[in-house]
Write a structure and sequence with these properties.
The protein has nine helices and nine strands. By secondary structure, it is α+β, with helices and mostly antiparallel strands. Strand 8 and strand 9 form a beta hairpin.
């Protein structure tokens, strides 16, 4: 009863160890030679009535609970410094550490550094800067320093300066005269961009239109 109920309710303190091997005084009896334990109670070494138990059993007139311990710093909080360093002195969850590894250079056991290069490499690998910004804002103990938000904004601005518009076909003409003739066709100019004296860049979805325009000029497109 004490073990199952009083201890669970917090009325007593117990000293308990794993029961296997806790006792050996029964092993000299026949049938107990090879048993590691008789029951889970083998590991119960001592009990003590605590202040709550004394109050519950009428042995104390009052009960004053101990002050609630202050929680430790939650795992995962970070400090973002104006010099672009990110410190996680209390440790990070594996997923958070992987995210920082993707966007920043690890410069210490629990320190990462954001740079233009680390951010742009992450973006080039397909990562989203919004993912990093949201994490920093939610996990940081303090508002993000202006230097860090400026760094993130600049990386985002650079991302929009160069854009992949999709695959194109490079069309080569035999000589500049043929290229000039094709370039003079109004229909062809709407589907292709002339490159130098003998070449055109044609988006993949406009190749059929370029082919028709070139054929109308008497030059079928040779795709061999």
């Amino acid at each position: 009863m004490l073990f199952e109920y009083a201890a669970v309710l917090g009325l007593i303190d117990i000293d308990y160890i794993p029961p296997a091997g806790a006792r050996t005084d029964y092993q000299h009896n026949w049938g107990g030679d090879y048993l590691d334990q008789l029951s889970r109670y083998d590991g119960l070494l001592a009990i003590r009535l605590n202040p709550l138990g004394a109050y519950a059993t009428g042995q104390a007139a009052t009960y004053n609970p101990s002050p609630k311990p202050q929680p430790a710093t939650p795992l995962g909080q970070i400090t973002v410094l104006p010099n672009h360093d990110i410190a996680a002195l209390d440790g990070l969850a594996p997923a958070d550490a992987l995210l920082l590894n993707a966007f920043a250079d690890k410069t210490g056991d629990r320190v990462w550094s954001l740079t233009h290069g680390s951010l742009l490499r992450a973006v080039d690998a397909g990562r989203d800067l919004t993912e990093l910004r949201r994490y920093l804002e939610s996990a940081s103990r303090h508002p993000l320093p202006q230097t860090v938000t400026t760094l993130l904004d600049d990386a985002a601005r650079r991302l929009s300066q160069v854009r992949d518009t999709g695959p194109v076909h490079l069309i080569e003409c035999a000589d500049p005269v043929v290229a000039a003739l094709l370039a003079g066709d109004r229909r062809l100019r709407t589907v292709a961009t002339r490159l130098g004296e003998r070449h055109f860049a044609v988006p993949a979805d406009r190749l059929a239109a370029f082919r028709r325009a070139a054929l109308a000029q008497g030059y079928p497109l040779d795709a061999r």
